Amino acid sequence: MPRTKTFDEQQALEKAMHTFWRKGYHATSMQDLVDAMGINRASLYDTFGGKKDLFDQAFELYRKTNAQGLQRFLEQQDSVRDGFRQLFAMAIAETQSEAGQKGCFVVNVTTELLPEDRSMEGVIRANKEGFTAVFHQFLQQGVASGELSADQDLEATANLFFTLYNGVKVVGKIPGQEKALLGAVEAALGALR
Fold first, then answer.
1. Which of 75, 87, 97, 110 has its CA 20 to 30 A from that of 170?
2. C-alpha span between 78 and 133 (Å, rounded)
3. Residue 182 — very low, low, confident or very high, per pLDDT cuts 50/70/90?
4. Beta strands in 12-169 (DSSP E)
5. How far apart (Å, rounded) are the C-alpha atoms in residues 17 and 109?
6. Which residues contact 173 (CB under 8 A, 6 or more apart)?
7. What is the model's pLDDT at position 102?
8. Topology annotation, domain 7-58
9. CATH 1.10.10.60 domain extents, the chain
10. Measured over all CA atoms, what is the biggest interatomic distance in the chain, rounded to whole angstroms?
């Protein structure tokens, strides 16, 4: 007779996600995961597979949650300029907090695993394409409303903001960068016309 699971899989996966995010893939041991998830090793393997399988699931959870949060936030904005300004201000404030200094999980994975782990290349590329598509759509709303010029290069601008957003997540790990980062954001917002 199969055993009944005595733990919440989603909660356990979230705990694994935070462990990988904080420590990185290579520095996270199976014991770290067992301890963080609060389940035994056999349950971990039975439910999630090995370390790489669990990492892939945790990383997908982060990417999905992050993308949904971005989409919801931008959908609530009336102004493209103010929406981007608020998005970046929140990202900067988050990275300058002690908890936020672990950065962006996607950026961390990119710098830790690429180019050596080519299996992650497609996932990282898909993440970039997804984010830039959301930014592009938001910029299109600005053109449609008349806030932005119809000759604005939306693809280049979406890529600029994606690059800046990821840069904020890296530089924001350095304490005391809020003023400099907010200045960089204002300079980038100057590209909107």
1. 75
2. 18
3. very high
4. none
5. 12
6. 95, 101, 102, 103
7. 84
8. Arc Repressor Mutant, subunit A (1.10.10)
9. 7-58
10. 66
What does pTM read for this prediction?
0.89
What are the pLDDT digits (tens) for 37-91?
A: 999 999 999 999 999 999 999 999 999 999 999 999 999 999 999 999 999 999 9
Q: Judge whether 54 and 33 are in contact, CB under 8 Å.
A: yes
Distance CA 182, CA 89 (A): 7
Residue with tokens 């990275």: 95
The amino acid occupying position 66 is: N
Both tokens assigned to 45: 């393997």
Distance in Å from the first CA to the final CA of the chain: 66
Whether the pLDDT of residue 168 is over 80: the answer is yes
CA distance 54 to 130: 23
The answer to whether 140 touches 180, Cβ cutoff 8 Å, is no
User: Rounded to whole angstroms, how far apart are CA atoms 38 and 34?
Assistant: 6
For residue 2, pLDDT over 60 is answered with no
